[in-house]
Design goal:
- The protein is α+β, with helices and mostly antiparallel strands and about 70 residues long.
- It contains 1 helix and 3 strands.
- The longest helix is centred in the middle third of the chain and has 16 residues.
- It starts with a strand and ends with a strand.
Length: about 70
């Protein structure tokens, strides 16, 4: 049987001009952190979450990036 785990990816990453590798390293760091705990990287998925608004406000959908990991149990 497999067990899955979803970890939120960074919402936004700010890097210096010409340093896009820093953004890639941020994702790699998250993946390496989880794989060190016995998880295997599976995929990255996008989910849209719409929260109920306050009184008289419109709902605002927000996209989140989830890193999916899997391991045998």
């Amino acid at each position: 049987m497999k067990q899955y785990k979803a970890v939120a990816g960074p919402k936004s990453i700010n890097v210096d001009k010409g340093d896009t590798q820093a953004a890639f390293n941020s994702f790699a760091s998250l993946i390496n952190q989880e794989t060190a705990g016995g998880w295997e990287y599976h995929s990255m998925e996008t989910i849209t979450v719409t929260e109920k608004p306050g009184c008289g406000q419109n709902p605002i959908p927000t996209n989140y990036y989830m890193l999916i990991f899997v391991r045998e149990v």
